[in-house]
Design goal:
The chain contains seven helices and 13 strands. 27% of the residues lie in helices and 27% in strands. The protein is α+β, with helices and mostly antiparallel strands and 254 residues long. A hairpin with a 2-residue loop joins strand 12 and strand 13. The chain folds into two domains: 159 residues, 3-Layer(aba) Sandwich (Aminopeptidase), CATH 3.40.630; 88 residues, Glutaredoxin, CATH 3.40.30. The strands form three sheets. It has a seven-stranded mixed sheet. A four-stranded mixed sheet has the order 11-10-12-13, with helices on one face. Strands 4-9 form a two-stranded antiparallel sheet.
Amino acid sequence: MRMDAEFVNVTPENLADEHLCCIIRSKKPHPGVEAKRQWLSQRLQEGHVFRKLNAKAVAFIEYAPLETAWVPIMGDNYDYIYCLWVSGAPKGHGYGRALMEYCLADAKEKGKSGVCMLGSVKQKAWLSDQGFAQKYGFTVVDTTNDGYTLLALSFDGTVPRFAPSVKEQKIGRELTVYYTYQCPYIPQRIEMIEQYCKDHQVPVSLVLVDTLQKAKELPCVFNNFAVCYQGKMETVNLLDIPTLERILRRGSGE
């Protein structure tokens, strides 16, 4: 199987022309895709890797050196996987395996200490499949009190950890959403949350995480989106209205 020929890495040179997998548009630009393209244009200079199937399909992996990954996780010489996603027609063809194996081989070739990713006690819809990662030897190396885990595959015995701020969890009581433009679905979800809170007079703080330092110092786990309410971390899943309403009801004790 000519696996390498089937994939392409996004680079500064081809970024404008390559589709970015999650939302594939053939005609007018999509605001979330264009926001992600802009975000990627900066990250690619920092060693961020976006590798995808060379077709109009959803099959890709995104990872970056942990030192420049926009997540509150600390560690030396690791890579961090943001997203490994294969959906629709590409499923069942071994593409997920090929993407993971590429990432691990790339990390070893660069002399990395290992590879890590965010997980949870109960699999979250907007996080990569941790069961799949565990087949490659990823194990839980750190946990939070609210059910999130840090999985790592160590090559040299060292392990990364959640940042101290994640453990301290100094979270305000107001509904707070932390986000970046890494995921093309985020801008529309933020707009939806903002409108809902305005219509229902719910105080909300929408915090754009726009620097590496902000990301490393967040008071909760984070992959590219996080929701907190009443002093607690609620979810890293992107919200729809029913889920937002459940969080608000639960937080108010209804």
